[in-house]
Amino acid sequence: MNTKKEHEMKIEPRHSINIKRRQHLPTQKQASEELIKQEAYVQKSEDNYNNCMICASSLLYSTEQEKKECYICHKTFYSNCECENGHYVCDACHEASAIASFIPYLLSSDCRSPQRLFEQVAALKGIHMHGPEHHMIVPCVLLTAYKNCGGDIDLEASLKEAVKRGGQVPGGTCGYWGVCGAVSGAGIYLSIITGSNPLNKEKWDIPMKLTSRCIDAIAAHKGPRCCKRTSRIAIKEATDFTAENFGIQMEDEFFSCTFMSKNRECIHDDCPYFPGGGVKA
């Protein structure tokens, strides 16, 4: 008999992301093992891509956080989200299969376009329609393209740092904090390539100049949220900002969305990436 609920469980801080397991980026073998491990919990359904990872039912968002136990790791967190059947999956477990998919892919890529890298990564197995993994994907595709265009960074170390920082940005910040995680991802990218930190007088303001542009561009399109739309806009703004301020011209491409049929909340013609939609971002 499961006695897990018979005693008070330790509450993990909302930003606890189990950094230990992210000290080393996954090998291809580890990536495959992580995907197999995650799939053991997931009902096989196309709806899992957009909804609950466990049962594919719709997600429900509340205005107040409550204590919830993650269905996969059984750690307890405060969260605003669970599915209609009461399943809750913490950000770390939601992101795990995504990290296992995209990090080895990016390390082996010579692509110079962050937009193309994003579309390729978004199509990988383990990447969901929405989710906090996008907070890591945005800086990681930008760092990869920046490196491949001549940027002077240690890519593996930079990706490792971007994953750790992006993993500290909770899901749902767009609606609950007024700052989309894709925007934070763009700021993470720029803070890494500039070496910015809270006490750096010369560089402290530079990432914020980019993130302010990203917020304006994203807010120009009404909700509900779409992690694909906001990520694309943040990447576009970061691409332009990098060329204007650092002389690194990453390839700038536009791709119409191919995920709209999987997004229950798609805004269709109001999205700049909807095929045949409005003005391009």
Q: Stretches where pLDDT falls below 50 for ≥5 residues?
A: 1-23, 34-47
Quaternary organisation: single chain
| General shape | globular
Overall pLDDT metric: 82
Strand content of the residues, in percent?
Answer: 5-15%
Beta strand count: 2
Order of helices and strands: HEEHHHHHHHH
Q: Mind telling me the C-alpha Rg?
A: 18 Å
The main pleated sheet reads as: 2 strands, antiparallel
Overall SS class:
mainly alpha
* Distance from first to last alpha carbon: 55 Å
The helicity comes to 40-55%
Task: Name the strands of the widest sheet in spatial order.
Answer: 1-2
Task: Quickly count the helices.
Answer: 9
Would you give an account of this structure?
With 281 residues, the protein is mainly alpha-helical. A two-stranded antiparallel sheet has the order 1-2. α3 crosses α4. The chain starts with 27 loop residues before the first helix and ends in a 35-residue tail after the last helix. The N terminus is likely disordered.
In summary, what is this structure?
The chain contains nine helices and two strands; from the N terminus they run H-E-E-H-H-H-H-H-H-H-H.
Question: What is this structure's SSE topology?
Answer:
Elements: H1 28-39, E1 59-69, E2 76-83, H2 91-107, H3 114-122, H4 134-148, H5 155-166, H6 173-176, H7 181-194, H8 206-219, H9 227-246
Helix pairs in contact: 1-2, 2-4, 3-4, 3-9, 4-5, 4-7, 4-9, 5-7, 7-8, 7-9, 8-9
